[in-house]
Design brief:
Length: about 100
């Protein structure tokens, strides 16, 4: 990972490629960004660059919407999942000490 090639948070894909990879429309992805559900990196010129992590998050958003949640509900679920991940990482770091 010395040059970042294996970094799942590194922005690699433009919005059209990301939309195709996750099976969603570009407008939907822009809406999710406006709602704060996904935050892609930006190139020096301001172009959105989606990472593998972002693609997973977009797939999770689609899954939750498919389950009947609205965007506010999706946002809350994602916040809670992020918090659980953070707490697990803290716990695991404590276990290694």
């Amino acid at each position: 990972m010395a040059n970042g090639e294996d970094d799942p948070t590194r922005g690699l894909y433009g919005i059209s490629v990301a939309a195709e990879l996750v099976g969603n429309g570009e407008q939907n992805i822009r809406l999710y960004e406006r709602r704060g559900l996904v935050t892609p990196a930006r190139s020096a010129g301001g172009t959105r660059r989606y990472s593998d992590h972002d693609l997973g998050r977009l797939r999770r958003i689609a899954e939750l919407l498919g389950d009947g949640l609205n965007l506010a509900g999706v946002g809350r679920v994602l916040e809670l999942e992020d918090e659980i991940g953070r707490l697990r990482a803290e716990r695991d770091a404590g276990d290694r000490r």
